[in-house]
Amino acid sequence: MVKKQLEAAPRAVPLSVVILAAGQGKRMKSALPKVLQPLAGRALLKHVIDTARSLEPAAIHVVYGHGGDQVREVLKDEPVSWALQAERLGTGHAVMQAMPNVPDDHIALVLYGDVPLISRSTLTELLALAGPKQTGLLTMVLQNPSGYGRIVRNARGRVQKIVEQKDASKKELKLGECNTGVMAAPARLLKKWLKSLKNNNSQGEYYLTDVIAMAAKDKIAVNPLVTANVVEVLGVNDKTQLAELETAFRRQVTHSLMVGGVTIVDPARLDVRGTVTHGTDVLIDVNVVLEGNVKLGDRVRIGPNCIVRNSEIGDDTEVFANCVVDGTVIGTSCSIGPFARFRPTSTLASGVHIGNFVEVKNSKMGEGSKANHLSYVGDAEVGSRVNIGAGTIIANYDGVNKHRTNIADDVHTGSNSVLVAPITVGAGATIAAGSTVAGEVPAGKLTIARARQTTIEAWQRPVKQKK
Ligand code: UD1
Ligand code: CA
User: Fold this and answer.
1) Which of 308, 346, 427, 451 has the fewest Cβ atoms surrounding its Cβ within 10 A?
2) 430 in the same domain as 345
3) What CATH number did the domain enclosing 227 receive?
4) Which residue in 93, 278, 373, 412 is the catalytic one?
5) Residue 244 domain-assigned (yes or no)
6) What is the per-residue pLDDT for 2?
7) With 70 as the cut, is the pLDDT of residue 9 above it?
8) Looking at the domain assignment, is residue 239 inside a domain?
9) Hey, is 209 helix, strand or coil?
């Protein structure tokens, strides 16, 4: 797939991002803080941090709330600095907590930790409207603006102020243009404005939105950008909204896969929780989940109800229904499943067949090898053209330690055989059905390890005794 070239935005003014994440999210009814709720497998706040990072800012500051230690802990590896807002006194107060660490000559871009789908391209557009003497403000036009701050413009269309729903006059309430909460302002002026915020409003809060009127008063242009895609600025407050944004995100991801040429049988039934790269003529059937980093070659087909996680699937390989593929590199022209399970870390060469109810873990399988039915292949090095018979189990675990098994090329293991590891099976060896082998199995020979079949000639079935 040809990735759109990311333009290295030549930015005259350095950027600091401030992400507000101090909200508790009571309506989530969850022990997990709101900004850690997963959307497509990633915390809401992580989406915002990732998008912020794509802008290559000098720094990202996350304002977290009282009791937000879990947020810091979960995202401790993120390249962000943390600012505690001990008391939730409003959005203006929240931004203030980060400002001491933002240099005066920076543009401060304010984002919300619970607005996950904001895009890099929208933010790039907004940043182009901000500078040392101008502020960019992201707005949206809604049919039902209830609840949002309203953008008040003058007769010439210049933004004058933002009024919150609860403080708005009847006339102002009729305005359809709303504040998204996202703004880009020169740090030096923003600091000054924030210092003179008052909380004499209906909610007793320090509103970030009040800086807009201050900018207008200081003759600093407020340049509005009306968002074309409202989904980007929707916040998440409860599980219903979370599911709505999950759907919106799914739509975006499947759309871009389809634009890239992937056939998706039903885009509403494919979830991508990570990154997918793919070749041409890939087909993905219904109820598939792709997680982490997934790489699909040309003409790969994935059947219904499969989960593929952190794996690579080679050209012309077909994965049939109901497979779980985790941490595995599957070669070209393989046939997988139905009902197969791969655990990390396994590698299959080309032309391998893995059939139903086969589990493969931490193993390698050479070219053209097969395990078609009901087997466990664990901690094994399997050569080429090996046939693992139905019901073969590699007993890799002695109850304390895991041991490795080496199976050379052209080996056939009989049905229901058990290979007790550590064990080496020589090239071309055949293990008879029902054998339990624990010693070395020599190359090129038939090894049988089971009781010889006998028939008791004089045996008679017992008969029921009369009382
Ligand atoms: C805010 C805006 C409103 C806008 C709306 C868009 C203000 C005063 N109002 O309203 O104009 O239309 O967002 O959704 O800015 N937060 C903190 N600390 C606080 C308060 C809030 O971190 O003390 C965070 C929240 O967690 C949230 C964000 O800031 O991520 C917005 O807060 P929220 O209470 O949702 O703002 P609204 O009242 O909806
Ligand atoms: Ca809100």
Assistant:
1) 451
2) yes
3) 3.90.550.10
4) 373
5) no
6) 41
7) no
8) no
9) helix
| Helices (runs of H) and strands (runs of E) counted in the chain | 8, 39
Structural domain that includes position 336: 260-447
Instruction: Give the residue, out of 91, 95, 118, 227, with the most ligand 1 atoms within 8 A of its beta carbon, to mutate for a pocket test.
Output: 91
What's the average model confidence in pLDDT over 199-208?
Answer: 97
Q: Which of 26, 18, 69, 74 is nearest to 48 (CA)?
A: 18
Q: Is the pLDDT of residue 62 over 60?
A: yes
Q: What is the pLDDT of residues 302-349, one digit of tens each?
A: 999 999 999 999 999 999 999 999 999 999 999 999 999 999 999 999
Instruction: Give the residue, by CA position, lying nearest to ligand 1 atom 38.
Output: 148
Ligand minimally distant from the alpha carbon of residue 181: 1
For the chain, how many structural domains are there in total? Answer: 2
Active site residue 373: yes
Same structural domain, 268 and 229? no
The CATH number that applies at residue 266 is 2.160.10.10
CA 174: distance to chain centroid?
A: 40
- Rounded distance from Cα 145 to ligand 2 centre (Å): 12
Whose tokens are 């022209």? That residue is: 333
DSSP code of 167?
G
Considering every ligand atom, which ligand is closest to the CA of 85?
Answer: 1
For the chain, how many residues are written? 467
Percent of the chain residues past pLDDT 70, beyond the cut: 98
Locate 5 and state its tokens.
């070239």
Specify the DSSP class assigned to residue 385.
Answer: S
- Give the position, in ligand 1's atom list, of the atom nearest the Cα of 148: 12
For position 3, what pLDDT does the model report?
42
Query: pLDDT at residue 7 above 70?
Result: no
Q: Could you tell me the distance, in angstroms and rounded to a whole number, from the CA of residue 246 to the centre of ligand 1? A: 21
* pLDDT above 90: residue 21: yes
Beta bridge partners of 19: 62, 111
In a domain, 467, yes or no: no
